[in-house]
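Record pair follows.
FIRST:
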Amino acid sequence: MLRKKTSLLILVFLLAILGGCASQEADYFFLDWKFYLGDAPEAMENDFDDSQWQAVAIPHDWSIEQSYTTENTAASTGFLPGGLGWYRKSFTLDEDPEGKHIRVEFDGIYNNSTVWINGHKLGSRPYGYSSFSYDLSKYLLPAGQENVLAVRV
């Protein structure tokens, strides 16, 4: 049975650095995400405290962790609640990003997503089943400093 999940978040990130990115580095990007179900208006800022957030790996679908209900849902959502959620990923680069082209690719974020890197808004997408990417290059911090990718869904 096919069902549309209003809170479905499927993220597939590929960190592609010109000159190559080892596959284990790309695989690392799927791990150690932080998730919060609800709104956190300052969560795009690097100094935001996400220490109490749930640790998740992506892809992640928060709706299947909820109980089925007939209130404020419909058969088209599988009778699972939707809502608003945030994801954050902290990472450091081993090499300075200067002169390199670095992008993040999303295979899909369902839906109405906005993405930030280090507090800089990269863009918003209203749809959930389309792949898209953003250029991170000009906003990344030097090697050894913590970068934060934040996604509001």
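SECOND:
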Amino acid sequence: MGNSIEITKGQWGIKQVFSEQKNYLKVPIAVLGEWFHPDYGEVKFVQTDFDSMLENWEENVVGYEPPLFLGHPIDNTTVEGAPSIAFLEKLYQESDTLYGLYDPVDAEAYQNAAKGSYRYSSAEVSRNAVSKKTGQPIGTVLRGAALTNRPFLTGMPRVEAVTQQFSESVDNNLTILFPLTTEKEMTTQLENTTADL
């Protein structure tokens, strides 16, 4: 929490400002391109896949925040029981890469990414997904992701540990206004008021 001086309509005052830093994991979900998998055959991501994942994320069609795991669960029976290290907060595209901004559940996940213990990622994607509400096709859906050091998709950017700064003014009712007088009187009032905040 900080303070800023505001001058308006012949008055000056102290406005409280809320400022916070937030740590995230910037996780590549997929890049545009084509690959061949020995088990699944052709693997391809085109722009329509990205558009579909972005739209389905905005509409919350999966009904939960897609989790981030350390490695993929070995089999489907462990998917729901495996602990997540972060949850998706934002999905967005930069150039040819789709990214997820993940909110880590603790400092360890962020620190491991920051020091490079986990460098890459692998997405859990459902193609030709069907809406749970309507039964209608909804295209490609992101269901989760995993950190790995041996990704299948080549050309993937590395996972990044990032920090974002958020600042916003607290409700205007908390602004304390005083008549705008001489600079000397303003300084005296400022010193007295700041001591009370």
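COMMENT: Residues 169-178 have pLDDT under 50 and may be disordered.
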